[in-house]
Amino acid sequence: MTEGLDLDAILTEIAGDMAREEDRGKVADYIPGLAGVDPRHFGIAVVLADGTMHVAGDADVPFSIQSISKVFALTIALGKVGDQLWRRVGHEPSGSAFNSIVQLEAEHGIPRNPFINAGAIVVSDVILGGSRPTEAVGEILRFTRHLASDEGIRIDEDVAQGEKETGFRNMALANYMRAFGNLDHAAEDVLQVYFHQCALSMTCRQLAMAGRYLMAGGAHPDTGHNVVSALRARRINALMMMCGHYDGSGEFSFRVGMPGKSGVGGGILAVVPGVASLAVWSPGLNDRGNSQLGALALQQLAVATGWSVLNPR
Ligand SMILES: NC(=O)CC[C@H](N)C(=O)O
């Protein structure tokens, strides 16, 4: 899948094309720490199964990974409670916005999947598991550093604080689920964990590195040990494919054909199992809260490389 490809040339061309795009979407402004990010940024990083890294554009500029952290948090929670998790959160696409509350009443406080906010808040509750919020945040940070083999990854406290001050909807989701008995801890404590995981600040290079276990059947390429089983990695990829872009998941699949997870910071993590782990960043979002140029760049990459889980190998 990679022989004969000049990936550096492909990525440079994509970065050049994206720099010329005028319709860049709109930077998320409902989180104070994100509103001021320059929409002209564009970065892309691709790490291959053999460990080689290819980058273009602002691949070394840190950005707020926001909901991409839901992939890593889900991985931790599955490690803690295994398939019991699926009693508290579903694995179906929602077809609604990432922060929607509408399904929760009809579905008795059980969120559709772990990648919408309600589902991720349940996942945070599982990770909290009786410890203090700061301990749970530390666990998520250490885990993410371990995945990327990079101790330089940080949490942006200003972004976390800004979300706390403006996160009324997330507070509503948490309290609503608590009323259904689907939250074990106080909403404030669970959201402290959730807001801090969303405030993880990473570069495209670090994010692509962190996604390697999903490319490698659950194994950590640097240690050879399994982060998760091959079956669990496949299921996380399935969830990314079906639910990773909220009500834009069908569109992303249609255009790109890779499991992918977006965040309102403008990042996307995408995986081609056995082939590559990819990260792209462009802060402007489309009307569903997904990176506008991020998806376009991945679409261009999928055409240039033939990479898609939906193509014959
Ligand atoms: N889609 C996202 O990235 C949303 C995450 C953001 N922290 C929120 O809760 O609203």
TrEMBL record:
EC numbers on record: 3.5.1.2
InterPro entries, per the entry: Beta-lactam/transpept-like, Glutaminase
Molecular-function GO term, any one: glutaminase activity
Quaternary context: Homotetramer.
Similarity comment: family membership: Belongs to the glutaminase family.
UniProt keyword terms in alphabetical order: Acetylation, Hydrolase
One BP term from GO: L-glutamine catabolic process
KW Acetylation (keyword) present: yes
The reaction(s) this protein catalyses: L-glutamine + H2O = L-glutamate + NH4(+)
Annotated substrate binding sites: S67, N117, E163, N170, Y194, Y246, V264
Lineage: superkingdom: Bacteria
Name of the protein: Glutaminase
Pfam families: Glutaminase (PF04960)
